[in-house]
Amino acid sequence: MHPLRKLKLSRRTVLRGMAGGAAVSVALPPLEAMLNANGTAYANGDGLPTRFISFFWGNGVVLDRFEPSMQGPNWDLTEELQPFAPVKDYVSVLTGIMNRCEQQITHHEGMTAFSGYTFTPSGGPGFASNFGGPTIDQLVADAIAARVTTPIRSMQVQCSKGFSPADNGTTASTISVRGNPGSLTPLYPQANPVQVWQTVFGEFVPQPDDSALRLSILDAVRDDANRLRPRLGTIDNHRLDAHFDALTELEQKIVAMPPTCDLPPAPMHTNSESVSNEQLVLTNQIMAELIAYAFVCDITRVASMLFLPLAGEAVLSESGSGSGSTQHVLSHQGGEAYHQGIVFIMERFSQLIQILGNTPELDGSNLLDSTMIYGSSDCSIGWTHSIRRQPIILAGTGRGHLVHPGIHYQAVAAADPNNGNAPSQGNMSDVLLSLLQAFDPAATSVGGGAAMSNTPLTEILA
Amino acid sequence: MKRSLRRFGPLAPTLCPVLCLVALVLPAAGCKDDPEGDGGTDSATGTGGSVGEEGVDETADGTGTSGGLEELDVTPAPGGMRRLTPTQYVRSVEVILGEAAAAAANPPPMPQLGHFDSQTAVDEPLTPVDIETYESSSMAIGNAIMNDPSGLAVVAPCVNLGGDDCYELVARDLGRLAWRRPVLDEEVTTLVAIANAAREWGEGDFMSGIKYEVAAILQSPNFLYVVEVGQPTGEGDVRELDPYELASRMSFFFVGHTPDADLLDLAEAGGLSTNGQLENVAYDLLERPEARARLAEFYDELYRLRDLQTKGKDAVLFPTFSSELAAAMRQETLLLIQNVVFEEEANFLSIFDASYTFVNDDLAQLYGMDPPAYPWQLVPMPVEQGRAGILTQPAFLTVFSHPDINSPTRRGLFVQETLLCNEIQPPPPGVMANAPTPAEGQTLRQWLEQVHNAEDSCAGCHSLMDPVGFAFERFSPIGAFRQLDNGLPIDSSGEVAGVGTFGSAADLATLVRNDPRTPICVVRNLYRSTLGHEEGPDQFDGLMVLDESFASTNFDYKALMVELTKNPLFRLVDAPK
What we know:
- The complex is a heterodimer of chains A (about 450) and B (about 575).
- Chain A is an alpha/beta fold.
- Chain A is built from eleven helices and twelve strands.
- The relative contact order of chain A is 0.22.
- In chain B, helix 7 (about 130-145) packs antiparallel against helix 11 and helix 21 (about 445-450) runs antiparallel to helix 22 (about 455-470).
């Protein structure tokens, strides 16, 4: 055990990190005034909100210590799934499903799990690619925005900053991309909780109301951009389209009514430690609480959490393994420390789920009853780089959309799942379509090319 | 559709021996299992120009020089708009509004996508968080000006007095600086209307109007994007930057910020027309202190020195590693580059085998030297450790290693990709990359040789990277000298196809310095970073001119930068993208 790693965070430290010592209780529910007489819908006629989170961790799992042996609701908590014990009823595990990405450059192909598209080439050194299409969280955000305007469409947060020095392009930089193939706008996560707080809640701090002036400036900005348009080509006009979309969203935020809940205190933790010594327990807890606040306050209904960047180039110094190696290096050694790193990641994922579960809403439900969480990685096992049998974890029911209690669904069994050539069946994008249909019942497909799906995975539905 | 500019004449062939050598070497050095079949060597093996596309049309006699443009057959990078990088934004605010305003500036960060930030600036759209951050930054700057208008008063002295016409003067004079061109009447009207509304909202406070007017100027796409679309030349789609655009491109290139009033005045008066004028302006810009900062910023990015900010090391194995030491490493490498370029005006390639360096106390301790007489003293490199040049400075050795062990692969990959411009392909699909840790009685080198040579599919590429990295095995993950690895003697000799045979890191440094690909790669990286564009065959002739001039000046980097500004690749753009 390295002496420096004995410095574990106490609960008290967590709270101090969150709110400078102030008491932390996760967000207050909306005022009754927001609800109709029966408490079944918002007074403005919109149904009670359904929410979505995508969760990503780089560098896979150890499949023979991850995949449950029993299917259905009585699935067994394997070593790497044990952290989900407190929320097992709200969790489903999907194994043996095929990632149908059409190309491979190690790790990048795994990200098809979030978009249903094969990546596209990206310039630059190293292993570089860009997302080929929009990601599931942004499809959900689009579907929600078509019905209702929230102060912000979606939020993107990040815990570990361990970006791989060898992997480049948008595929290696984010899990949130919106738009259409050919004119995509990647949305990059914020790793500093203080900045996340500013982005999500800062607008609602009472201040002199200069909204009319701010809006008039945005109008002038639009005029300026429109004068530029004829001089520019197609690509730059697409970029100005994205600029316009962002202006519209800023306008919506400026005119939004302040939420009828107490804003969380601004965190003090900035997540600025080096990638050998990150405080991921604390960061994850703060990010999860900020998401919970944002959901209960209905500031947004969509979040993405990039927990550990693609390829896992960070030292998980709180995992208890005592190793000073990055999760990436450990994966190629295949030892116990790699497995302990995965358990640590699953503990953090479970912590996020538990925080949502502990956040009540006015009708007696909790945020897991209204939220669906989709989690996956960039490969099945770090040392094979294989995308066969890539793991998927679902949590929450999304207002009765997903099966409860959760199940283990296995597309195809494998005697030796760790073998990089073990069988897989079906299509991971089927899962994405099943989730999207909760927000857009008319959605008929997700993704493109070989990874496209037009067949939702019905086994996971309630 | 690519079109070349016909009036540019044929290229002098004197560089051919060097380039032919490169063309021979690069394919041999690429990976054998190259699925795309191009090995990333287009730039070195391209036939040059777009003659083949359009048919030979070499009727131009080369006498039609307009504005001093080189006579050359090239198609430049597409025109369009590039966002300001964060440092360009802050420095530009400082130039037009002063230090207090710059201190309040808080632009959004750029995503680091692996290629140059400048390419991200050309390619990527802005996000909602970006736009909102630009808004709040502009408001913070506006507040700073309300508190202290002295910076704005330099551009618009009327702010000291107020007065009815001051909002218009600010719109015209500050707007011209911020937007790098004269402000149109209708734009002035809009800005003045915003200022008047803000004064009214502020219950008659004149400075309230100034705040929102400045915020509007800084949120405009005319400030946030540098627009470079040029004007038609009458030769296909190729366009020539107008004087304002050229002044902007030069200013951002040499000093990293928007052109100041003097440079805009000069451009407006036609003072950027001939090669002689450009050369004078370029050398003037290189005299400014920001030019040194700009050069440092470029190499900070290219050599990934900025990664040192978040780079962590195992605290038990390397207890002396700290953020202060990491910052010192970064500064050491940048000081050497600045010294070679600005103080010594020496052969730029000497950065690769320099026999001296700059240290503070922490670095001296890391090197095992006596403390310097004063911080950042120039000292001899400890040659007895096999050290020479930037590849044996702690910064490179630290960035390209793991927290707890060296990474000969990543060190070798950097040399191949960034210094020699030799692309290495990713691992093939289905590779089983599970290997135990080095056993007792095994060095890291022996382990990697065992693991990576076990299969041809690995050895093909790793044989180009790992052995290069073995040259640096005498240096730990924080760049400290060591005699043993895992208790065993270290072998830092090796042989790499296309690179040569070496016995030490210093030998390898000499090989890199003398490799004909090295100066060409310096030019390619400078081009890519400056234009935000990956070169292709259409740019080949223009780049060859730069290669030749770089060689002819004994690799004088400042002269190379000046030559680039005179090159049609810098002064022309293709149709807007």
